[in-house]
Amino acid sequence: PSALVLIYGDATPTLIGYNYTLSGYDTGDAALDTVTGTLTGSTTYTAGSNIGSYNINYLSGTLTSTLGYGFTYANNAAAITVNKKTINTALQGTVSKTYDGNTVATLGAGNYSLTGIFGADAITIGNVSGTYDNKNVGTGKTVTVSGLTLSGAKAGNYQLGSTTVNGAVGVIIALKQQIIWGAPTRRKAVETLGSRLARSVS
Length: 202
Known about the structure:
By secondary structure, the chain is mostly beta strands. The chain has two helices and 14 strands, in the order E-H-E-E-E-E-E-E-E-E-E-E-E-E-E-H. A hairpin with a 5-residue loop joins strand 10 (129-132) and strand 11 (138-145).
């Protein structure tokens, strides 16, 4: 069987009439021979199988040679190569904080959307730190995250189209300053016994 290249999540290939290569001809006969017939194969690969190599085994069918050659039908243990699926991400929701004088942005898993996931694969982006475009108060601020990595049991079957993402999802809220006014000092007149007696003498 000839080699096939698939992307993770691709459907199981139809192996009725699969392509094949021929070997073992006497010198010059390959150009003169005409081969007819079809072959049917089988494979252990199914949609959702992890990246790697998979077999195509001969199952049925026959070939006929105009030069009278006979055929032995071999299997190919690594005929199918499954490569990683490319997916894309975008920022969503709001990334908010109160003004603190720096551009550090803190994100959660819910701030990332992923497109191109196969089936029910649970894939997430674990990066929690990014940067605002500047430290100033405002809304619709651009947040950028670099060095993105994928997490999840099936994460090894995927690759990101870009490991950097940005979006106008940032909000920096003005710092509310609380001013506490001290209670006014009250002066209390203290009268001594002598002063009270002095006022009582006429």
